[in-house]
Design goal:
604 residues; alpha/beta; Leucine-rich repeat, LRR (right-handed beta-alpha superhelix); Transcription Regulator spoIIAA; 16-stranded mixed beta sheet; two-stranded antiparallel ribbon; 18 strands
């Protein structure tokens, strides 16, 4: 039944309510009328005798009294979807509704654009704690004083508390609103946060910094005026320095090259995962400014499409790729051309980039060849190359929307992810990542892979970006900052973790990799200058069969003797084995074919 926008008052609703009684109507749309509190009472009283499941009362001048009548009778109704947005409901009305939510069949309720403040929001939050199935849309009106007014618009689902959108309007956020925001979103992330105030100021930024301290923000939308205003970057840094931000969305903000310079300064102070700065016409000069903020940042996805970037801008970007964690780079529909493709090809060699978007850049066939000829030295496995005028040099029928690359041998990026997944696990008892022994007959790794993982992460810490992308980002675009922190902690302590692993799991390790030459293990860690690990391996040399040259496990490999001497560790026990020296020399003299024999004889 649709009676939207019919100027129905309370008397018309009184008559309509009687017709709805005992009817089979399930959907009722009464939006944009003048029902008021009295009309809401007439309607509420007959709900239990109807089949109504969807009730739309948007914009009907219903206040707290009307909400009270509805709340009283919703418990006995079949209503699952209730729209009360754009009415006059305040904190008192919100309290009435909150008290009955858990006893109703309501799964969706829309209370946006009412007069509900922080207190009313808290009533509804508490009610949602008992009503996990209910989806709530709400905005909060907050008056700090007579002159300053702020509106906090949020919509979120209580189903596992997974969705929260917040938009801040106006100026003058105060302590109550700050406390509400910080407490409300401690456990659930804000999916979209938009700052809609005209300008930021010192007092406002101080309050907002408290509100968003240690809060996860999946998508932060910042207006042009916040970036370009005097001290704007300083205020943004103050607000978000201690927030956990996934994406900073600056798309279509008319930043140009000057704005890009300000953004670079912001990136030097706060960490984000994804940066969208597309459609800002920042040009080459803007890229030149921006790269200073990209270096040594946590950014892993960078969107720079539609920015009129030419080959010089591509050069600036290519030069710093090796110093970033960027795994996905979107440069679609710029103007990098053949020379830009050449710069990018060189810059990609030592980078972590696995996906590259270059649609619409006029790189032509020559630029295409620059990229393809360097593939084996990169981590790339996907390139978008459509609209580049390169088809004349390709085999007929080649598709360029997404050029997926079959790599042989496997890239470092894929190797890192594969090995980490097999050799490292989150210990449920300690809540820390630890090395593990892979399962026998299932694993496709060997001992050398422990060394590869440690060497890769030590030599180039940015390779951890691939582990983050594998373990921290899920299909719902949520980002697990706790896991990121645990991975960073593991990498920081990786040598100590491996030593503890060797001490605790040596028997199992030898069982899985029984044919491995552990002399090689000592050599590789010595080459890596992991001296503490080498010492720990030497202390346990008697357990490595491959360290011995004879069946009786009496004579060690020359390299092991060499390392024992270097680390000032005894080659044998003079007290317990007084004749051991002569036995070693005699064995080596009879096996002169062994590399390094003469050096050990001379040493002894």
């Amino acid at each position: 039944m649709n009676h939207s926008d019919n100027i129905l008052g309370d008397e018309e609703i009184k008559s309509l309510s009687q017709r709805l009684k005992n009817s089979q109507v399930t959907i009722v749309n009464l939006s944009c009328n003048i029902i008021g509190d009295k009309g809401a009472k007439y309607l509420a009283e007959i709900l239990k005798d109807t089949q109504i499941t969807t009730l739309n009362l948007f914009r009907n001048e219903i206040g707290d009294e009307g909400a009270k009548f509805l709340a009283r009778h919703l418990k006995e109704s079949r209503v699952t979807d209730l729209n009360l947005s754009d009415n006059y409901i305040g904190d008192e009305g919100a309290k009435y509704l909150a008290e009955i939510l858990k006893d109703t069949q309501i799964t969706r309720i829309d209370l946006r654009e009412n007069n509900i403040g922080v207190c009313g929001a808290q009533y509804l939050d508490l009610a949602q704690g008992y009503t996990k199935r209910c989806s709530l849309k709400l905005d909060i009106n907050y008056c700090a004083n007579c002159q300053n007014y702020i509106r906090i618009i949020s919509s979120y689902s209580s189903q596992m508390h997974q969705i929260a959108n917040v938009t801040l309007y106006g100026d003058g956020i105060g302590t109550n609103a700050v406390n509400y925001l910080n407490q409300r979103f401690k456990e659930i992330p804000i999916v979209d946060l938009t700052l809609n105030s005209d300008e930021l100021n010192a007092i406002e930024s101080q309050y907002l910094a408290q509100a968003f301290n240690d809060i996860e923000i999946m998508n932060l939308n910042v207006h042009n005026c916040h970036v370009m205003q005097t001290n704007g970057i300083q205020y943004l840094v103050k607000i978000f320095r201690h927030s956990r931000i996934v994406e900073l969305n600056l798309c279509k903000k008319q930043l140009k090259s000057t704005g890009a310079k300000y953004v670079a300064n912001l990136l030097k102070e706060i960490n984000i995962i994804d940066l969208n700065i597309s459609m800002n016409c920042i040009e080459d000069e803007g890229v030149k400014h921006l790269v200073s903020g990209l270096k040594n940042n946590t950014i892993r996805r960078l969107l720079l499409s539609y920015n009129n970037i030419r080959h010089e801008g591509a050069k600036y970007l290519a030069e710093i790729l090796k110093d970033t964690q960027i795994t996905s780079l979107d440069l679609c529909y710029n103007r990098v051309g053949v020379h830009g493709a050449k710069y990018l090809a060189n810059g990609l060699k030592n980078s972590q980039v696995t996906r590259l978007g270059l649609d619409g850049n006029m790189i032509k066939y020559k630029g295409y060849r620059y990229l393809i000829d360097t593939l084996e030295d990169t981590n790339l496995y996907s390139i978008d190359l459509h609209h580049n005028c390169i088809e004349e040099g390709l085999e007929k029928g080649t598709l360029l929307y997404t050029f997926n690359i079959e790599r042989n041998p496997i890239t470092i990026a894929k190797n890192i992810k594969k090995i980490f997944k097999e050799l490292v696990s989150l210990n449920p008892l300690t809540s820390e990542f630890e090395f593990i022994v892979p399962k026998i007959n299932i694993s496709t790794v060997d001992v050398d892979n422990y060394i590869f993982l440690m060497k890769s992460l030590n030599d180039n810490p940015n390779t951890k970006a691939h582990i983050f992308e594998m373990l921290c980002r899920n299909d719902n675009h949520r980002y697990n900052f706790k896991i990121t922190s645990k991975i960073n902690e593991f990498i920081t302590k990786i040598d100590d973790k491996f030593i503890a692993f060797i001490r605790s799991n040596l028997t199992d390790l030898l069982q899985v990799f029984d044919s491995y030459n552990y002399v090689n293990l000592v050599k590789q860690f010595q080459d890596m200058r992991s001296f503490v690990i080498v010492q720990n391996l030497l202390l346990r040399r008697e357990q490595y069969i491959s360290c011995y040259l004879d069946e009786n496990k009496e004579i060690l490999h020359p390299y092991i003797y060499e390392m024992l001497n270097e680390y000032k560790m005894p080659l044998y026990s003079r007290e317990l084995q007084p004749s051991k020296k002569e036995a070693i020399i005699s064995y080596y003299k009879n096996h002169s074919e062994i590399d390094g024999v003469q050096e050990i004889i001379d040493l002894l």
